[in-house]
# Entry
Amino acid sequence: MGGLHLNRPIVGLAATAGGKGYWLVASDGGIFAFGDAPFVGSAGALPLASPVVGMAPGGPSGGYRLVAADGGIFCFGAPFAGSTVGLLKRGAVSVDPAGAGYRVVSADGSVYAFGGASFLGSVSVPPLVGEVVTIDPGHDGGNGSDPGFIDQPIDGGGITESCDTAGTSDAAGYSEHAFNFDVAVRLASLIEAGGGTVVLTRTTDTGIGPCVDTRVAIGNAAGSDAAVSIHGDGGPVGGSGFAVDVPAPVVSPTSDNRAIVAPSATLGGAIRDGFLAATGEPVSDYTGADGIVPRADLGGLNLSTVPKVLIECGNMRNAGDAAAMEDTAWRQRAAQGLADGITAFLVQREVP
Ligand code: ZN
# Structure
């Protein structure tokens, strides 16, 4: 198809039994037949729930079969013997012929055999292998000691803001930067345990900075599959609960985050659900709606080119929230909730 303009990339090729023809399949299910390979239908006009990722010849019956990332099987001139829809933990990556049947393999190493195909073994790949997660513990322990650096103006993508702040603290003097760092380190361990690669925007709690624009640049440069900034809020004493800030669309001479608004909203919802389930902490009663706050006034979201959210894990100025945030076991549950939400988001991208 080198001379033709296609709307979607080619993702697979299957040869005819005699070797004198083949089919190509595009991710939208379009089929292109060459040589003696007959065209017997395509999925190109179907509204697919997820993209086609591979194809296989139909075997003795002729024809061919397609597999979509969600495990859906589309058969043309070949019998249907089952699909993996609803079974997959990660996306399907190929379908292969096996006698009159076929096998599907998914990214987690699972092998599914249909129509008399034999199952001979599989491997197990942890759920986050291949995924990069940037974790940004807000502020830093030394920020309060260098206002000249921390107060300097930076471009926040359509806004001018300060490099950072020293963050807040609770009435007992427990500081936000220490809370953020502790939860970030716990989250990093959980992501790595799941096979993921972690990038931290700071690796100690005693430094100064980096500025917010540098933090977001670190997540962008890593090609992160997901990024999260961890904070505690300094809200009204009478307000409580957690909230997830998600990017609102911002276009400026130095930024355009429109491409990440939708996936970040999905990430934000997954983190909200994970955090709620793991901590039992209610969503904020003083900001946002159902725990979600779209923001256009944060450089950390305006400048991101990867799916990113910021979570205010609780209100440190509220006595009840502060007591929870000071508790080591609660912080572990908070990190677990974040890990659960990030994992759900990353898996959901492959298996909708
Ligand atoms: Zn903060």
User: Anything to note?
Assistant: The chain has a mean pLDDT of 96. Residues 138-139, 167, 176, 231 surround zinc ion (CB under 6 Å). The chain has seven helices and 19 strands. The two ends are 30 Å apart (CA to CA).
